[in-house]
Structure formats: structure tokens, C-alpha cells
Design a protein that fits this description.
Number of strands: 5
Distance between the termini: 11 Å
Strand content: 5-15%
Largest sheet: 5 strands, parallel
CATH class: Alpha Beta
CATH architecture: 3-Layer(aba) Sandwich
Structural class: alpha/beta
Order of helices and strands: EHEHHHEHEHHHEH
Number of helices: 9
Number of domains: 1
CATH topology: Rossmann fold
Length: 184
């Protein structure tokens, strides 16, 4: 069994990597976003980036910095299948997962202007923003000294594979195939 954690910048293509691993290799998908959506709705909040971030930070502060991904890891391990945990965002999450023999962390990144165009096109509930807000959200999520809060730059730094998604899908898929070969 292989469990891959996916981290990366906003709109870089994490979901595209997940879809490819599911379709080509049969991985099952466990999403931090979907986990948080359920928590946000339980709390009667609007499902947007600020609510997701607030609830995630609250769960981490009241449990452990790795609480959310620990819950998803348990589900992934119980499935007995190769799995992806999408949206690793804190060093505390990595600390918890990297000690597991079946886990590796991959990061996805791309040029900010390309990423913003992708975000506008996907138009999810967290994506109705202008470029300045997009960049401000990313800046807020890139670094933090608080282990309960997002620190994407540290997560990307600690990834065993960094996939650059500035080109074609075929180029991205070739990087995924290579990272999977290197992981085995």
C-alpha cells in the first residue's frame, strides 16, 4: 500500500495530479477540503476559503496540528488500497505522516498568473476572487510559526517530489509517473 500526501500552492494542479493517480493507477482519494466542508456545514458556516481555514485552525488547536490528516490517514489505511491525501498544509501534518513507512509527500507548483487563471476557470466556492485577493490568500498560507496554521512553503520544501505544472498535461503526467517510479 502506498499513501501519497499532496501539497502545493493555490491552483497549482493538485486536483489534476489526484485525478491522474485515480484514473491511471487506481488510487483512492481522501480530501482535506471535503473533510473541512463537512465540518464547516456542521457549524452552519458559509463554505469559503476563510471558513475552511478558520475551522482547520480550530480543529488543529483543539486536537493536534495533524488532527485532520490523521483522520484521513486512518481512513486511507483502513481502505487497504493505494491512496492520496490531498492538501497537506502544515508541518505538523507532515511530522505525523512522514514516520509511516507507506507515506510520501509530493508538492505541486506553477507560475502565479497561470494558477490564478486556473482558479478563475474552476470557479469553486472558494475561487470567486480577484488576483490581489488570490495573492493575499497565498501569502497568508505560505508561512507561519504556529504549528496549527498553514505553512505551504515549509511543506513544499519537505516534499520528496516537486512537480512543476507550467506546461502541458502530458508534461505533468510524465512528472507524476516519474515520481511514482522513484517512490517505489
Amino acid at each position: 500500500m502506498i499513501i501519497i500526501g499532496i501539497t502545493g500552492t493555490l491552483g497549482a494542479g493538485k486536483g489534476t495530479v489526484v485525478d491522474y493517480l485515480k484514473e491511471k493507477y487506481g488510487f483512492v482519494h481522501f480530501s482535506v477540503r471535503e473533510f473541512l466542508r463537512g465540518e464547516v456545514l456542521k457549524r452552519g458556516m458559509e463554505p469559503n476559503r476563510d471558513s475552511f481555514t478558520s475551522v482547520a485552525n480550530d480543529l488543529r488547536a483543539h486536537h493536534t496540528p495533524s488532527y485532520i490528516v490523521d483522520q484521513l490517514y486512518l481512513q486511507a489505511a483502513a481502505s487497504g488500497q493505494n491512496a492520496i491525501i490531498e492538501s497537506i498544509r502544515t508541518p505538523g501534518e507532515i511530522d505525523s505522516l512522514e514516520g509511516k513507512a507507506d507515506f510520501s509527500l509530493w508538492a505541486v507548483n506553477a507560475d502565479p498568473k497561470i494558477r490564478y487563471q486556473r482558479v478563475v476557470l474552476r470557479a469553486s466556492e472558494t475561487d470567486h476572487i480577484d488576483f490581489e485577493t488570490f495573492m493575499a490568500n497565498e501569502k497568508r498560507e505560505m508561512t507561519s510559526d504556529d504549528p496549527n496554521k498553514q505553512n505551504l512553503s515549509e511543506c513544499i520544501r519537505r516534499a520528496s517530489a516537486v512537480l512543476t505544472n507550467d506546461g502541458s498535461l502530458e508534461e505533468l503526467y510524465a512528472q507524476v509517473d516519474q515520481a511514482l517510479r522513484d517512490r517505489r
